[in-house]
Design goal:
The structure holds 2 protein chains of 2 kinds. By secondary structure, chain A is an alpha/beta fold. Chain A is built from 14 helices and 9 strands. In chain B, about 40% of the residues lie in helices and about 15% in strands. In chain B, a hairpin with a 4-residue loop joins β1 and β2. The relative contact order of chain B is 0.24. The chains are: A alpha/beta, B alpha+beta. Chains A and B meet through loops of A and β1 of B.
């Protein structure tokens, strides 16, 4: 590998405060090996990480999980982030919040809440999340966020069980008072790969959902901002994953590992450093795992000579490894990849599976029970 | 909603969750919003700093025209274009 590429400072930090979560969503982006409560870094360490992040040029701090509300020190962490000038975004399932807690978080300086909703139909939402009553609690959480004067984004992950209601999810978000909605077709990492056959819609289902949501942009112009993540398995070129490996943002896991993205540990042989031993600046600029795929020197053909190599960076490294066994290969979503037929075959399989009726999921709790929220 | 900035008496506001921030490290002014970072130039900063939740668009234009001894018609057009554009992205409330 060539000399490290000079990196720009990061603009965002995704802080996975815990992997504990009361929900079991079958597309969860957490790794299959969930980190337990006993390995989580403490409040003081997180606060140091956020101070270092602000000094390093990070603008947005995304407080995520698992369910971040499972951490009792959430309010303290939010207050610290606000004190060092970070824009704080709470990414939550809504479970574990109360009206009092939302108000306390708003008073502590929280800037924004992103609430996940698994479906616009209550029974389906509860089934997807594996948590009876989830829908009603999410509706209540949305109301508390609005009443606390906080801006609300609704995040809806789209897959076969709810793909027919992508547009309905936008309408629900408007009704809840959200200023922004993310309609994100499932990406297949972590638990999403385990459940891929049950999650993947047919190309026709995905296309219909995309068209419906795109049409709603005009309907709701100036009312709600729609961010739309379309499925890459049906695409011709890969996504510019993370805007480039270790180029714009970083993750810190519950136990303090610094990663370029939440799936990075799925690539074997990469050396990632921990915030217990290293500053965030050291991790960003000098850790081997971050430098592994910076720039373009690591690329093979067809990426190396491709005119799009600085556009999509060869796509996603984790997906390249998961589907081809080689993290330096072109993301096989790309039609120029010699492995593109594997993606086509998987997408084709989804069309056949669809006839089989209600999907059966492997819930993360059923494989390895996370500790309870409190 | 974007037509509202054409009418008079409108008071533009940065809603909660949208922040004008001086990024000392990068030497830039930024508008921070959910999952958005927008670089803003000196003219936009001068406009946005005057969106204090009390001033109307007309009074902001008057203030800018006086401060910069500039053509009021031109400033009026710039201010409305900026605020309408940001309102469409829900980064300003009108």
């Amino acid at each position: 590998m060539n000399a490290p590429v000079k990196a720009l400072n990061p603009v965002g930090l995704l802080a996975e405060l815990t992997h504990r979560c009361p929900l079991g969503c079958p597309y969860c982006s957490n790794p299959l090996e969930l980190e337990s409560r006993t390995t989580e870094i403490d409040t003081e360490t997180w606060n140091r990480v956020f101070s270092e992040a602000a000094a390093l040029g990070v603008l947005h701090a995304h407080l995520s999980g698992g369910e971040p509300a499972a951490r009792r020190d959430l309010q303290e962490i939010v207050a610290h982030c606000a004190s060092v000038g970070l824009y704080t975004n709470l990414i939550t399932s809504g479970i574990g919040l109360t009206q009092e807690r939302v108000k306390a978080l708003a008073d502590a300086g929280l800037d924004h809440v992103q609430l996940s909703i698994q479906d616009s139909e209550a029974a389906s939402c509860d089934r997807i999340s594996g948590y009876p009553g989830a829908f009603q609690r999410k509706m209540a959480a949305a109301k508390w966020v609005i009443e606390a004067g906080l801006p609300l984004t609704v995040n809806a992950v789209i897959h076969r069980a709810n793909v027919a209601r992508a547009g309905e999810m936008v309408r629900l978000s408007v009704a809840l008072g959200a200023r922004r909605v993310e309609i994100a077709h499932t990406q297949y990492y972590g638990w999403g790969i385990v459940n891929r056959a049950a999650l993947m819609p047919t190309e026709a289902q995905a296309a219909a959902a995309i068209a419906e949501v795109e049409a709603l942009r005009e309907t709701y112009a100036g009312v709600i901002v729609i961010d739309h993540v379309v499925p890459d398995y049906h695409a011709r070129y890969p996504k510019a994953c993370m805007g480039g490996w270790a180029k714009r943002t970083l993750n810190v896991t519950p136990s303090g590992k610094g990663l370029p993205c939440h799936a990075a540990e799925s690539i074997p042989g990469l050396d990632f450093w921990n915030v217990r031993d290293h500053s965030l600046e050291d991790i960003w600029f000098r850790s081997p795992g971050f430098n592994a795929f910076r720039g373009t020197a690591w690329m093979k053909e067809p990426c190396r000579s491709c005119e799009r190599k600085d556009v999509d960076y060869g796509g996603c490294r984790c997906q390249a490894f998961a589907l081809t066994g080689d993290a330096c290969a072109a993301d096989p979503v790309c039609h120029l990849s010699p492995h593109h037929d594997k993606v086509t075959a998987i997408a084709q399989h989804a069309a056949e599976e669809d006839a089989a009726g209600e999907p059966t999921y492997v819930y993360r709790a059923a494989v390895k029970a996370p500790l309870p929220a409190e | 909603m974007s037509e509202m900035a054409q009418t008079s008496g409108v008071i533009p506001r940065l809603p909660r969750g949208v922040r004008l921030k001086r990024d000392e490290m990068r030497g830039e002014w930024l508008l921070l919003a959910p999952e958005r970072v927008v670089k803003v130039d000196a003219i936009a900063v001068a406009i946005l700093e005057r969106c204090d939740g009390a001033a109307t668009i007309e009074s902001i234009v008057d203030d800018l025209a006086a401060t910069y001894a500039a053509d009021r018609t031109r400033i009026d057009a710039d201010v409305r274009a900026l605020l309408n554009g940001l309102a469409a992205k829900r980064m300003v409330d009108l």
